[in-house]
Amino acid sequence: MDMLKACTEPFSRFYRTHEALNDVVKLSALSFKIAEPVVSNEKEHPTKGMLKRPVEPWGFVWSDDIPATFSEAEFSLARMSIVQAYGSFENYLTLTRGEVDRWRHHRGIGSLEGKTNDENRNLSLSQFCKTIGCSFDLFAEYESLFEFFQECRNCIVHRESYANKRLVELADSEEMAKCNNNWPFSQSNTLLPDWPVFRADEIIALQPKHAILAAAVYYKIAKCIDTFIVSSFGPEGMIFMAIHHSLCADDHPSRLSSHTSYESAILKFLTNRYRVKDATRHEINVGITELDLHKKVRTCFNSLYWNKYKV
């Protein structure tokens, strides 16, 4: 069983949301760029009429300054996307804690110390890492950007997108500049986007590219945490997780249409969803035996798929 590129169930869900958000931001920003010259140059263009018409669902544009309208649309897209990116990452932390708790409970270790479930959302990232035993140093290089976007999210949600003094301090800090300079560039040597000037009690004028950067920061941190979780779980823990989500979980995130054996259902999750390579039915059966889950696995499998094969 090769777990070099393996991931957990929480990360699998997080990754899908992350990719979808990136696609939406890029497509929306591109649509704005294409639509702005069309709306600005065509006096009778129906799109301009939609923007100006004071009826639902379009609302009312208070001026004919079309470029300003599109700029504000880009700002709004960025702000909404930053909030969604942070919410997705927060959800990943909550689900990861639940996954670790479930595995610890099965092994008779007991639940994690500290806050639980909804209360866990108030934990700082360093506290979360301490709770699950993960070293914060794994992603210390992203700490400044993480704190910056976390404060951005708080200002957007709680201050109607007006910057506070803390955000201005973070934006101007030496740590932020160092984080910018040390960002791991891609093969194309793409630089980080330029930052606007931040002033207290003024609107945060971030662009869609900053929202993509925020999502990238959350992704890199989540990946570091997930690599640690996979390593700590080992093959047994990964099989246990696949058993739970393929057969026993209430939500069944990716319920399979039909299978002739429970090994097939578990193997499908391990290889397709959790990216475990070279897993075999024999390894799964050995894992089920060592986990003492044969009875539970058969019961759950029969309740899901048995009627499909009854004659």
UniProtKB/TrEMBL annotation:
It comes from the Bacteria. This is Uncharacterized protein.
